Amino acid sequence: MADLFHEIDQCVTAPKGFRTGTTSCGIKSDAGIKDLAILVSDVPCTVAGVFTTHNLRAAPVLLCQERLKGGKAQAIVVNSGNANCATGQQGLDNAYQMTSFTASKLGIAEDLVFCSSTGIIGRQLPMEKIEAGIQQIELSTTDGNAFAEAIMTTDTHPKRMALEFEIEGKTVRLGGVTKGSGMIRPNMATMLSYITTDAAVEQAWLQQVLKEAVDDSYNMISVDGDMSTNDTCMVFANGLVDNTPLNAQHPDAPTFVQALRQITFKLAREMARDGEGATKIQTINVRGARNKADAVKAARSLTYSPLWQCALAGGDPNWGRIAAAAGSSGCEFDQNAFDIFVGETQITRQGIAIDYDQDQAHAAMAGDEVIITIDLHLGDGEATAWGCDLTHGYIDENSLYTR
């Protein structure tokens, strides 16, 4: 893989023909903090997207879902500090107005402009500030890293990645950014993710492989078990490499899929690692489930169990919390069959505690990354999920969020 993919800088502006720009327009209470950003391609792109399944979907999500039906996009405008959710018809009108301001600035068709918002729910966007901010944004092909910073809310650091590889002997680039550290339990967290590529890709296949990548990455993380109203993940493919459009039959399709999944897996783990107040990331490996669906249920159950997250924070290898979470997940579960491992230390065999090296188990819980393995011994289903511990820092962050 090291020879096939080369990691490079500038994330979403690494591929040919993409530019970004950012500004501080005063949406956030902290003056000077960047809170508005534009990502644009020099030419229209094939676009794919997946979004929150929340019943309270934010206005930008509704706009994106409607415009995605056309299969084309050229730009997206993103604000942080305000979710534009639960804002009624005015909020929806404001989302469309954001895209109108952006289209006018860029000189492109309005229906090719998408938008996203992240931040506090229930407040109307300050449209005068946004209009002025859009006008003052300066676009650059070397500002991708700043774009990753401008979309953050409670994130402690930007999350970004870009890869370079070959399709048909031509150099192709794929770049991605994401934000999210709280209200994270994607089901397609608050998470926003944008991925760009200069490869040509057929839209239906791009939508398929994006959904599959998201199911195994972003949909397998949790910080707090709360699903966001604004979850958005989109891929923009502008085709400037001029390759034969990728589809399932293309001989280089597996290379593109591998690159896409490498980026979504990396960014998903970074969100779990950066959970609000988190001190540890946990990796949950489930094997031996009746099928993959059951493995997913069992793996995810630990990532949003507050009892287990507290044990994780304290470095306590309390396997009863693990077994209880898996047993209540809805997967097929035989209480006389499961094995649990903390790191390399086996804690249970056939559902019963065994003698184990407690110092070794505590040591496996002490680092900033903890690996838990559960073998259900019921089939060949496997899944991996990622989460974090639950600390007082999470309470501190969310007890004063709107002040």
UniProtKB/TrEMBL annotation:
It catalyses: N(2)-acetyl-L-ornithine + L-glutamate = N-acetyl-L-glutamate + L-ornithine; L-glutamate + acetyl-CoA = N-acetyl-L-glutamate + CoA + H(+). One of its GO terms (cellular component) is cytoplasm. It is an enzyme of class 2 (transferase). Its EC number is 2.3.1.35, 2.3.1.1. The active site is at residue 190. Pathway: Amino-acid biosynthesis; L-arginine biosynthesis; L-ornithine and N-acetyl-L-glutamate from L-glutamate and N(2)-acetyl-L-ornithine (cyclic): step 1/1; Amino-acid biosynthesis; L-arginine biosynthesis; N(2)-acetyl-L-ornithine from L-glutamate: step 1/4. Keywords: Acyltransferase, Amino-acid biosynthesis, Arginine biosynthesis, Autocatalytic cleavage, Cytoplasm, Multifunctional enzyme, Transferase. The record marks 118-119 as: Involved in the stabilization of negative charge on the oxyanion by the formation of the oxyanion hole. SUPFAM superfamilies: DmpA/ArgJ-like (SSF56266). Substrate binds at residues 153, 179, 190, 276, 398. InterPro entries: Arg_biosynth_ArgJ, ArgJ-like_dom_sf, ArgJ_beta_C. Catalyzes two activities which are involved in the cyclic version of arginine biosynthesis: the synthesis of N-acetylglutamate from glutamate and acetyl-CoA as the acetyl donor, and of ornithine by transacetylation between N(2)-acetylornithine and glutamate. This is Arginine biosynthesis bifunctional protein ArgJ. It comes from Ktedonospora formicarum.
